[in-house]
């Protein structure tokens, strides 16, 4: 998988000036292996940069099991194995730290029983409680539970203790993410009301629940797979349309206030052919990673799902930049935005710039 990125602040024509590196390999053919030589199993995941250890931790769904359908019309699935964790100093070599939140094999009533659903785990660190807090989408095999689950650990490598699940604000919750702001406040974003809207809510100070505040955004837009990030006081988000395992065009959104309203900027995908741009490079968003030492530098993380064999789903990591005018007028005011275009650039190979690890 391509793993390193050029500086985001550079225009595309300057991205050819890349340093020599071992990073970068063919996106369409390679399986990304950990340091033990095994395929990385961290789907639908996200990355925590832990300042305490100066290490990146990648959490995601372990799907290293057989893919099957409960019934002919049901979704393709893998029994819950758990949440994997990988650690890295360079974003290329990943060490498997184990399954930090395992599925439950005996208690069929447990939220994480192997027959149920665990998706899109995200971890943030709470500076007040000194706990690592994991949020995830938990569901039953028929996707009718539609809840969030919460787990905690004193270590980034676990084990995480599962606490409970609930429907935030009483609404169904499917694809979700959490975002920690510069001031330490954290927020939950979740697809709701049959995936017709997204909801956003602040978390409590311990990050273990939502507050009573909630706003509905992207009404009747049918968006999922949110990935939220921030640059110079503006919040951005990448979302996917709801189309099951099939890829579709991503959309970028922006706001000056995290609780909204959010405006849509258009499809952020640049380069490749028309088909790749209309399928988010055959992938679906899961996370956008900022890099320390390079303000404004991001990696767009996505999953290239293989519904017939989910364990063989691949990862798409590409450089993301912010700059230039948005391609489309604002949804609500029909004016032009005060923020810039979000661009995800297609590269078969690419590399990190010098100095990206400087804090």
TrEMBL record:
MF terms (GO), sorted A to Z: hydrolase activity, hydrolyzing O-glycosyl compounds
Biological process (GO), any one: carbohydrate metabolic process
Check the record and name the SUPFAM superfamilies matching this protein.
Answer: Arabinanase/levansucrase/invertase (SSF75005)
> Could you confirm whether the keyword Cell membrane appears in this record?
no
Q: Which domain of life is it from?
A: Eukaryota
Keywords from UniProt, A to Z, are: Glycosidase, Hydrolase
UniProt-listed PANTHER family: GLYCOSYL HYDROLASE 43 FAMILY MEMBER, GLYCOSYL HYDROLASE FAMILY PROTEIN 43
The entry's family comment says:
Belongs to the glycosyl hydrolase 43 family.
Put simply, this protein is called Glycosyl hydrolase family 43 protein
């Amino acid at each position: 998988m391509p793993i390193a990125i050029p500086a985001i602040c550079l225009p595309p024509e300057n991205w050819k000036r890349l340093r020599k590196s071992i990073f970068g390999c063919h996106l369409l053919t390679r399986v990304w292996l950990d340091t033990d030589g095994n395929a990385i199993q961290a789907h639908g995941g996200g990355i925590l940069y832990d300042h305490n250890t100066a290490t990146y931790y990648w959490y995601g769904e372990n799907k290293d099991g057989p893919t099957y359908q409960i019934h002919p019309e049901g979704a393709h699935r893998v029994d819950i194995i758990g949440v994997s964790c990988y650690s890295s100093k360079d974003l290329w070599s990943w060490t498997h730290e184990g399954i930090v939140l395992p599925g439950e094999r005996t208690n069929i009533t447990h939220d994480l029983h192997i027959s149920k659903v665990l998706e899109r785990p995200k971890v943030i660190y709470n500076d007040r409680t000194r706990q690592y807090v994991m949020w995830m989408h938990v569901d039953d095999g028929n996707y009718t539970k539609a809840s969030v689950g919460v787990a905690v650990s004193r270590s980034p490598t676990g084990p995480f203790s599962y606490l409970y699940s609930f429907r935030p604000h009483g609404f169904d919750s499917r694809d979700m993410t959490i975002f920690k702001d510069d001031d330490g406040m954290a927020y939950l974003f979740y697809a709701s009301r049959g995936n017709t809207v997204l909801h956003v809510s602040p978390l409590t100070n311990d990050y273990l629940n939502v507050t009573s505040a909630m706003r509905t955004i992207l009404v009747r837009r049918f968006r999922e797979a949110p990935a939220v990030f921030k640059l110079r006081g503006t919040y951005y988000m990448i979302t996917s349309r709801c189309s099951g395992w099939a890829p579709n065009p991503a959309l970028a959104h922006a706001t000056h206030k995290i609780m909204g309203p959010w405006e849509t900027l258009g499809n952020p995908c640049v380069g490749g052919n028309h088909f790749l741009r209309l399928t988010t490079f055959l992938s679906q968003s899961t996370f956008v990673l900022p890099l320390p030492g390079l303000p404004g530098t991001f990696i767009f993380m996505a999953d290239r799902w293989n519904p017939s064999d989910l364990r063989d789903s691949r990862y798409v990591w590409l450089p993301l930049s912010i700059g230039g005018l948005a391609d489309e007028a604002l949804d609500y005011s029909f004016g032009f935005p005060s923020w810039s275009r979000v661009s995800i650039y297609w590269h078969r190979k690419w590399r990190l710039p010098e100095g990206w690890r400087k804090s």
